[in-house]
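Interim report to the steering committee. The following record documents the input for Integrase core domain protein (353 residues).
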Amino acid sequence: MKNIYHQLLLLIAGSTQKELAAQIRYLKVENEVLRSKLPRRISVTAQEKNRLVKFGAKLGQAVHEIVTIVGPSTILRWIRESKKPGGVKQVRKGRPRTKEEIRELILRFARENDWGYTRIMGELKKLGIKPPSRNTVKNILKENGLEPGPNRGEGTWDEFLKMHAATLWQCDFYSKKVLTLKGWRDLYLLIFLHVESRQVYIAPSTFHPNEEWAMQQAEAFLEHVKSVDLPIDTLMHDRDKKLTAKVDATFQAADIRVVKSAYRSPNTNAFVERFIQTLQRECLDHFVVFGEQHMDYLVKEFVGFYHAERPHQGKENELLTPGEPQPDVLSIGSITCHERLGGVLKHYHRQAA
């Protein structure tokens, strides 16, 4: 591009007055063609604006005929402003930012009450303060991690999780097609997950997840909870018909509150569903499963890997059951790989000295 301008300057310098006029006319036509291909409005930076002012100030009345990137009146205004102390002023685009005092007041109302953005706007108006637009108030709340709508019932779902995570378990069924002597059949797992620690308990698989089987697994789960010393006050599950009223009564008899997720709300049971996705993608999708014993073996190996060897992003890449602290000095040669399930699951650790 630099060479093109250099050649153009040499051409102009060696031209006669008549040739120069013809070249300028051509450049104007070419500029109009190029300009027609661009958006109707072109934004320029402060540096580009200063360059236009520098060279436009020497054009005099020719500004009205030559300038096309902005209106002639605009560049004449820039030229006038450049002669004042402080130079060309930068014009802020878009709506002015909401005053900091009003932003703080909006956040105070939201934090001290369960109001939505409309109620907050009404409170501002009552105080004689012209409220920002609805979208502005909503965006201020969202930017600070606050729900723009009013809280309903006992609170938001996030608040429920924070309050109950230490004693909250979620459970769900998972089914997989397995190959048997009778052909392909659906084999079921009942999975329980402790929300705070992410530890899981998986009941033995079955082809017949009826009410009697589910009640037996509920009792076995309660015994497991006692053995691992993980608290449980609330159990959440979806509206799967396999989890009947009698199954819920088994938990309620142990003073456990059973909460069913709302209809068509899979996100409310998201923790256990996310674990099921992990189990499927990292383990079960790699195998053709042959019956219950094979499934139970695969699941047992994965749960051991999941609890003791796999870092968890949701827990800041820590292990669920941490081992001995590792020294800071790294010796590459001491790192070995332990494999499960033929190398599908791999765990790297330092070899004992």
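The CA atoms of residues 76 and 292 lie 84 Å apart. The committee is asked to note this result when reviewing the revised timeline.
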